[in-house]
Amino acid sequence: MFSALSMKFFSFERHTFLVLSSVGYALLLSNVQADMSVPRNKSIPAVIVFGDSIVDTGNNNGLTTIGKVNYPPYGKDFMGGKPTGRFSNGKVPPDLIVEELGIKELLPAYLDPTLQAEYLITGVNFASGGAGYDPLTSEIANVISLSGQLELFKEYIVKLKEIVGDDRKNEILANSLYILVIGSNDITNTYFSTPLRKSYYDISSYADCLLNYGSSFLKDLHELGARRIGVFGIPPIGCLPSQRTLKGGKERQCVDYLNQAAQLFNSKLAADLSSLGNKLSNSRLVYVDIYNLPLDVINNPQKYGFKIADKGCCGTGQIEVAELCRFACSSDSDYVFWDSFHLTEKAYRLLVHKILVQHLSSFF
Fold first, then answer.
1. What's the first-to-final CA gap in the chain, in angstroms?
2. Is residue 20's pLDDT more than 50?
3. Between the CA of residue 156 and those of 50, 78, 132, 354, what are the distances in Å?
4. Is the peptide bond prior to 73 cis by the omega test (within 30 degrees of 0)?
5. Closest C-alpha to 14, from 51, 40, 52
6. What is the pairing mode between strands 308-312 and 335-337?
7. Neighbours of 299 (CB within 10 A)
8. What is the pLDDT confidence band of residue 35, given thresholds at 50, 70 and 90?
9. pLDDT tens string 138-163
């Protein structure tokens, strides 16, 4: 039997402004373009994000789920120290992507009740912490499934058309950058922490099952007008502080079988995207590796300006996430991880920059 703390933790496990002036954004955009090889005659009018807690910017706040973090110490380094539902101490990858691209300062959650109509023009976020490719993953966590996120996107398209008209709407949809970050919860939670899928699949066939859901989603997204789509792989989930604590033995080592499952899924995903990209007209499907660089940061934190990579900043750093994260360390810039699942803004900023430099040109 699990303890009450373990049960609460596994529940969480089911879900892993300063406003710049227009001149400042123009300067930022020109620098980014020079660094990241965006063709001069091309543009990215908006960024649209789907996925899980790595990229959720607050969509879970209004849901009846324990998978939400709109309370301190989350957001302690966000603008004004405000907890917004971002699973970190500050900004998360969607914010950093639009910032680096010079589009805007933050990528708002689509379900944010204060969302202004004009924000839709430059992109919004549909991600929901706790979601997975597998509908069962989202159902267990009581969050927005991938198909549910797609339904919200359809609603967004209708609103966008009302704001800018049909022609401009189509132009925005075709040229925007779409990001999908999902899959970790399927592996760590639905597969390895419950018998609900493990009884019917080995890990390879379960990965194939996840990819079937993913391919269906990408086809639907393409049908709705998306063309530039970046699909992130699964990070080294065996090295999450939570997994080290729960499954890494007394020494809290990285859990090999979890990392091997992530690598297996990633290899299948890369191949699947290559095949699917050849079938979807005028599409750019880009596989984004977020396994190898994060693993190197975790294994060699000093190399990247960190001191601690096996524990999070909040609580003991070994198990706390969401409402178990009651207090934070005094020096989160020393940490790769904010809680036992999610990275600090400093770590996310490093990764997002490297990813954009490496992959942005692939979308053109």
1. 52
2. no
3. 13, 27, 21, 30
4. yes
5. 52
6. parallel
7. 12
8. low
9. 999 999 999 999 999 999 999 999 99
What are the catalytic residues?
53, 339, 342
Other C-beta atoms closer than 10 Å to the C-beta of 10 total 17
The tens digit of pLDDT for each residue in 45-78 reads 999 999 999 999 999 999 999 999 999 999 999 9
| Cα–Cα distance, 269 to 208 (Å, whole number) | 9
Q: Write out pLDDT tens, residues 78-91.
A: 998 999 999 999 99
Residue 41's pLDDT band (cuts 50, 70, 90): confident
Structure tokens at 313: 């900043």
Tokens of 348: 């996310």
Q: What is the pTM of this model?
A: 0.89
What count of other Cβ atoms lies within 10 Å of the Cβ of residue 292? 13
Query: Does position 234 have pLDDT exceeding 90, yes or no?
Result: yes
Whether the predicted pLDDT of 30 surpasses 50: no
